[in-house]
Structures are given as structure tokens and as C-alpha cells.
Write a structure and sequence with these properties.
heterodimer, A: seven-stranded mixed beta sheet, about 0% helix, globular, B: mainly beta, six-stranded mixed beta sheet, 12 strands
Chain lengths: ~120, ~110
């Protein structure tokens, strides 16, 4: 597609439930990122994929969070046993090549997650 | 730890006023610098970027930013704002050789018609 596509755009879930958020990057982009943006804050890094592998997952807050990118394109962020503090906008971004080469990253519109 | 500071959290201006939004970062090495804008209801979009060369960079919609290495700053400017510039503006730093983009907390700009 023309841009980074994220689904769902909005998700309301009950505390303790499991949630999956999907990201479809710009075609041909090998680098993919997940960020989280809480109210009044800037985006915070969660995880970076180069191809199929998670090159850096140091931003994932705890082991309830996990992300995959099995075929090097679409990625899914998975959150287990959701907590109210997980409520935020989850942003996906992609860039053409390696993320450390100074390439511009392009963001999707985000998935608004609300845990009630 | 690396961080990015945007000192102005909320700015209100009248149309045609000049704009300057501050951005300072803490990192001693070489960096790539970005300003992103988020219009109401839309996703983050790149406004301008600095990788190397001329420290004064020009972006879209009449925006420019100046990298002052000695001050660890990358301030955003526009000589004359328009109502359509109402948005949230984020400064981001990418330490060279890494893939992490560190964002500031953002500045909400409201331009009064």
C-alpha cells in the first residue's frame, strides 16, 4: 500500500484479555518499528525488526508484550493479560533499509488501545 | 540516558506571527535530527530532517530548522504561521549508527485565525 497500515484503529478490551495489533508496512521496507505513545508523551520505542528478526526488543516493557514478523512484511504486536496501564496509541513505522543508516521512518495512524 | 527536551508544551499564536519551537537533546555523538508533525486526527508526518552538511535545513510548508551542534539544539522555525499549522510537533533524534529514534514530548501549537 501507499502508507503504513495498522489495524484495528481502535480497540477497547477488558483488563486481563489478550490483544493483537497488526501492522502492514510500506511495500519494500525491510525495517519495521513499534512505538507506544501515551497521553501527553512522545512516541517511545518498543521493538525494531530488520527483516524477519527482532534486532532489538529492549523497549518492550515486560514479558506480556511480544511481537512477530514471520515473513518479513506484516508484523503483529501481541499483548497478554492486558492492564489499564497498557492503554495508549501503538504506532508502527517502517523504513526502506537498515534503521541505522539514517533513513526516514514513516508512521502509520496507530492503534488506539483502551483497557477498561 | 539519551533524551530529547521540548521546552514549550503549548504555544498559541495568531496568524502571521513568527514561530520558534525549541528542541535540545542529550547525546555526545553524531546524530540525525528530525521534526515530525501530527495534524489533528492524522498520523505523524515528516516535516524536515538533518543528516549532515548545511545546518540550516528547509522542510515542507515553509518550515526550517537549524542544527547548532555546540548547543545540542535543533529548533524549528517558521516566519509566518497559518491557521492550518495547528498541530502537534515532535522533535526526534537518531544517534548515528543506531536505529532508535528518541522523541521529545511534543509541542501543541494552536494558531488563531
Amino acid at each position: 500500500g501507499a502508507g503504513v497500515s495498522q489495524t484495528p484503529s481502535n480497540k477497547v478490551t477488558e483488563k486481563g484479555k489478550y490483544v493483537e495489533l497488526r501492522c502492514d508496512p510500506i511495500s519494500g521496507h525491510t525495517a519495521l518499528y513499534w512505538y507506544r505513545q501515551s497521553l501527553g508523551q512522545g512516541p517511545e520505542f518498543l521493538i525494531y525488526f530488520q527483516g524477519t528478526g527482532a534486532a532489538d526488543d529492549s523497549g518492550l516493557p515486560n514479558d506480556r508484550f511480544f511481537a512477530v514478523r514471520p515473513e518479513g512484511s506484516v508484523s503483529t504486536l501481541k499483548i497478554q493479560r492486558t492492564e489499564r496501564g497498557d492503554s495508549a496509541v501503538y504506532l508502527c513505522a517502517s523504513s526502506l533499509t537498515r534503521g541505522d543508516s539514517g533513513n526516514t521512518i514513516y508512521f502509520g495512524e496507530g492503534s488506539w488501545l483502551t483497557v477498561v | 540516558a539519551q533524551s530529547v527536551s521540548q521546552h514549550n508544551h503549548h504555544v498559541i499564536l495568531s496568524e502571521a506571527a513568527s514561530l520558534e519551537l525549541g528542541c535540545n537533546y542529550s547525546y555526545g555523538g553524531t546524530v540525525n535530527l528530525f521534526w515530525y508533525v501530527q495534524y489533528p486526527g492524522q498520523h505523524l508526518q515528516l516535516l524536515l530532517k538533518y543528516f549532515s552538511g548545511d545546518p540550516l535545513v528547509k522542510g515542507i510548508k515553509g518550515f526550517e530548522a537549524e542544527f547548532i551542534k555546540s548547543k545540542f539544539s535543533f529548533n524549528l522555525r517558521k516566519p509566518s504561521v497559518q491557521w492550518s499549522d495547528t498541530a502537534e510537533y515532535f522533535c526526534a533524534v537518531n544517534p548515528s549508527g543506531t536505529y532508535k529514534y528518541i522523541f521529545g514530548t511534543g509541542t501543541r501549537l494552536k494558531v488563531l485565525a
